[in-house]
Amino acid sequence: MTATTLPVTVPAPARPRRRRSVNLAVGGALFGLIAVIGIVSVFWTPFAFDDTEGGRLQPPSAEHWAGTDRLGRDLFTQLMIGARLALAVGFGSVAIAAVVGISLGLLAAIARRWVDDAVSSLLDIAIAFPTLLLAMLIVAWRGASLESAILAIGLAGAAVIARLTRVSATRVLAQDFVTASRTSGTSTWGIVRLHVLRNVWPTLIVPLALQFGGAVGAEASLSYLGLGSPPPNASWGRMLQEAQSTVLVAPTAAVVPGILLVALIIGVNLLADGLRDVADPTTRSIR
Amino acid sequence: MTALLDLTGLSVRIEGPAPRTLVHGVDVSLAAGERLGIIGESGSGKSLTALAVLGLLPYPLVAGGSARIAGDTGAIEIVGTPARRLDRVRGTTVGAVFQEPLASLDPLMRVGGQLAWPLRRHRGLRGDALRRAVLDALAEVQLADPERIARSYIHEISGGQRQRVAIALALAADPQLLIADEPTTALDVTVQAGILDLLQREVTERGMSLLFISHDLPVLAGIADRVLVMRGGRQIELGATAQILAAPVDPYTAQLVAASRRLDEFLPVAESGGGA
Amino acid sequence: MTGTTSLLAAEDVSFAYGSAQPVLADVSLAVAPGASLGLVGESGAGKTTLLRLLLGLAAPTAGRVVFEGERLDIRNGRALRRFRRAVQPVYQDPFSSLDPRMPVGRSIAEPLRSLRIEGDHTARVTELLEAVGLPADAAERYPDAFSGGQRQRIAIARALAPRPRLLLADEPVSALDTSVRMHVIELLQRLAHEQGIGFLLVSHDLTIVSALCEQMAVLEAGRIVEQGPTRSVLTAPAHPYTARLLASVPRLPAP
Asked: Which residues pair with C169 in a beta bridge?
């Protein structure tokens, strides 16, 4: 049976009080704040995006809370729209990574040996392939746009998710309850739907949450390099790139997008850590 | 007569935000050459007790009370003693065999190499003498073809052979007390009989004490002089084996004995007066 | 005993992985409707493989598995479904035979769904839980709320759902505590008596086989070495391996 256990299982401690949810709380706060800004931007921003009446490179004022950029556009507006874009990239690419990755992983786990080998080799190559290079290829093919960026980042993330899914699914498929399901007359597809997905899903929550942060950072890099959605978009990465040359004159424009980027990524990572703490199984067996 | 092993209020707790007691205090003494069996069902705390005596409780478990071992080098208190000092006791005074030999043997080292370690360390053997001692140790646990076994990795030999190697390892430093925690539970019944015979023989020939833990009353009855019954982390009853079987005092013990008897009765009366 | 009167039988069944040594060779046994057969063997004897073949999870490399007088073709969906309604397994490990993330009631109802059995599934689940001595509200809970013995009862309830005529049990009580074993054995005996369900019990434990099976067969290294009524085999074993098995069982001293 369990070949490498010590001869004892540590029984579950009574549910610990929520001390460990500091991660969850802080992460949730950071993420929530930026999410709210992004959502609000759909309905309202202080100025229209392309309103260039504000005067160029103005410092923060009562009218322009974060000042203006070199074209006279309100920075706060851009930051808000940038938040919305960052969330779209995060959710979009995680969704792609999840759908493509889980499908491939399941396929590799249930298919015949050679299919599994073929898919695994493909995944190894995909994982070794640098995300940025993949993104550039996709951009060259489809043209620079938000969709291209999301697609590229999503596919790059899918490979890792596929690997994790494959390992987890294989383990689940070896369990007696799967055999019992077969003898209950359930089809292979039924087994995947009824048993494999629900047992594999918990191991994927945290990696997917972490991918969110990675995706946001990746998109910022792409935009910084000019490969993201072309102007006029409001990616924080593009804002950083534009503000570079004028950093001494208008520091706000160069610093604030960066701070928000870091805040969002740290927030999501802490959230992921917090999820892991909370979702921890109640039994800790010393294996 | 000082006892070899003396447990006084030995307890096991989980420390931390939600502390719990898993073993509520065990009191028993084991004399030199005596064989004590601990019987209990799952969750009884019998294995934890064994680990506490060895000072091997995994974090976050902590032992309380007292477990004194009076070896050749003087008495030592196990509870609360740092691991470094316990290392001197483990192997030389106390040896242990566990249920799953795959857990106590190194999968990356050949059998001969693993056995050489304690022999080199405790008996100071080197070179040819060491090699011969390894082969002798393997032969002593009735492994045929000791040379081949010594060259093998543990996954290359059978479960029964592995357990014999684990026993050889436990006996290598000539301990005075052997703790065996469900040593045959994971083995086939014919193999089990051989291992139990081996343990009996070794313990007798070396004049060792034995602490044998099992959930299986017939197995225990064949090897232990006294039986300690545990349930839910508590000591329920302690007495001579024959007495526990014939006239158990505690209702739980009575129920355990009755259940074992009913199962035992399904088999025809043994022709030659008992198996094992 | 094979052929027309048996419910499930193996006829000269062999199994090997590729060109390796066969795991099973020329195994023949049969279970009549309502009868009980114990299959005894140690690890490596091929019990697990034989069980897989008898459950229709794999096909023999030689010989055939016969269900109700006809060869079992596991590629025939309809025949397989009919087979599964009649023959159900009970597994050894109560901790891995139930999906930990599915409420127990759904696990029990799964054969009803997958085998397209009509009727009120919820009511049937309640009925099954009662039959194994568990309360109806157990259906909402998850497996980790139950002890090993209780989980085994739930697994038995699941096996009983499609009203099978034969249970194939793989070491059904060996993972359980001694005091609980008798209860599960008694449950199985009662079911056999009340509903005329037969057993094919696979175990290394002669005690269990003796308790539950009128007939027994001994499997050694992929071959049946002895077969016959349990009483006779155990009181006067013909084959030396059987004798050795019997002699190895630890016994309580006579009272």
From this structure: C90, C201
Tell me, yes or no, whether B269 lies in a domain: no
Q: Which of residues 201-220 of B touch C (CB under 8 A)?
A: 215-219
Which contiguous run of DSSP H or E holds residue B250? none
At A31-85, the pLDDT tens digits run 999 999 889 888 888 888 777 777 788 788 887 888 888 788 888 888 888 899 9
| Domains defined along chain A, listed by start | 30-42+63-278 (1.10.3720.10)
Closest residue by Cα to residue C42 from B155, B189, B162, B275: B189
Residue A182 CA neighbour count, 13 Å, CB half: 15
| Claim: this prediction has a pTM higher than 0.90 | no
Contacts of C89 in chain A (CB under 8 A): 179-180, 183
Q: According to the CATH classification, is domain C8-248 in 3.40.30.10?
A: no
Question: Which residues of A are less than 8 Å from B17 in CB distance?
Answer: 13, 16-17, 19
Q: Do B16 and A13 touch (CB under 8 A)?
A: yes
| Distance in angstroms (rounded) separating the CA atoms of residues A28 and B172 | 57
- C189 has a chain B CB within 8 A of its CB: no
Whole-Å CA distances, C249 to A52, B120, B191: 92, 38, 10
Which two structure tokens, joined as six digits, stand for A279?
């979702």
Helix/strand/coil for B152: coil
Q: How far is C18 from chain B (nearest CA, A)?
A: 22
Question: Is C177–B41 a contact, with Cβ atoms under 8 angstroms apart?
Answer: yes
Is beta strand C215-220 parallel, antiparallel or unpaired with respect to C223-229? antiparallel
Chain B residues with CB inside 8 Å of C244's CB?
190
Residues in C touching A185 (Cβ below 8 Å): 80-81, 84-85, 111, 114-115
SS3 B2: coil
Give residues with Cβ within 8 angstroms of B235, minimum separation 6: B24, B25, B26, B27, B28, B228, B229
Of the candidates A236, A243, A109, A97, the residue with the CA atom closest to the CA atom of residue A170: A109
Please check whether residue B276 lies inside any domain of the structure: no
Decide if pLDDT at C143 tops 90: yes
d(CA B199, CA B207): 12
pLDDT tens per residue across span B63-91: 999 999 887 777 888 888 888 888 877 87
Cα–Cα distances (Å) from B26 to B48, B66, B230, C171, in that order, read: 11, 9, 9, 34
Q: Which of B14, B62, B187 to mutate to test the interface with A (most CBs of A within 10 A)?
A: B14
Total domains in the fold of chain B: 1
Contact A287, A5 (CB under 8 A): yes
